[in-house]
Design a protein that fits this description.
TetR_C, Tetracycline Repressor, domain 2, about 70% helix, single chain, mainly alpha, transcription regulation, Tet_transcr_reg_TetR-rel_C_sf
């Protein structure tokens, strides 16, 4: 049975969204096309009508994941009188630590993205730049063509802290890592000598 153009586009969006979640949960190489399509409720046969390769899908799914993460930061910031604290509250939390499929793609796929093609790495590069921009806005740092050292340090610290906390089986130690990172982010954000 032939699928309408609208249904084909809806199926494509479903596959991208499902791939975004499954790649974050299992890694780029941790899931095959058959299981990706099954997760989207579709058959593998339709894959190549929508995507040129798994790499093409990985690039689209990575872009979707990074856009979602940046939007999540902006949404959290908009709901608080202390936007940086609001972002830290959800990002450096045990809840976010446990969000393997819906959490930060930098944490879930960052080290994996390094080994991928330029097509797959590019959304991560854009996403990192977008996160730097959001952090600079949250700290009211002067606008320039480059991100501030504070933004670079804070993002690195936060991504690293969530990554390390996910490694730890001891939940109290994992929570300690997140709490220590939050304290350090507060300290860095208020320092005048880091620009």
């Amino acid at each position: 049975m032939r699928v309408s153009r609208a249904q084909a586009e809806e199926n494509r969006e479903t596959v991208i969204n499902v791939a975004s979640r499954l790649f974050r949960e299992r890694g780029f190489d941790g899931i095959g096309l058959k299981d990706l399509m099954k997760g989207a409720g579709l058959t593998q046969g339709g894959f190549y009508k929508q995507f040129s390769s798994k790499e093409h899908l990985a690039a689209l799914a990575s872009s979707r994941a990074m856009e979602s993460a940046t939007r999540r930061w902006s949404t959290a910031a908009a709901t608080s009188s202390d936007p940086l604290e609001a972002v830290m509250s959800f990002y450096l939390s045990m809840g976010h630590r446990g969000e393997m499929a819906d959490g930060c793609p930098l944490v879930a796929l960052g080290s994996d993205a390094v080994r991928q093609s330029d097509e797959v790495r590019h959304p991560f590069e854009e996403g990192v730049a977008a996160h730097f921009e959001v952090l600079d806005e949250l700290m009211n740092e002067a606008k320039s063509s480059n991100p501030s050292a504070k933004a670079m340090t804070i993002l690195s610290l936060m991504v690293g802290a969530v990554t390390l906390s996910r490694i730890m089986g001891d939940k109290s130690l994992a929570e300690g890592i997140l709490d220590a990172a939050a304290e350090e982010v507060r300290r860095i954000a208020h320092r005048e000598d880091v620009v």
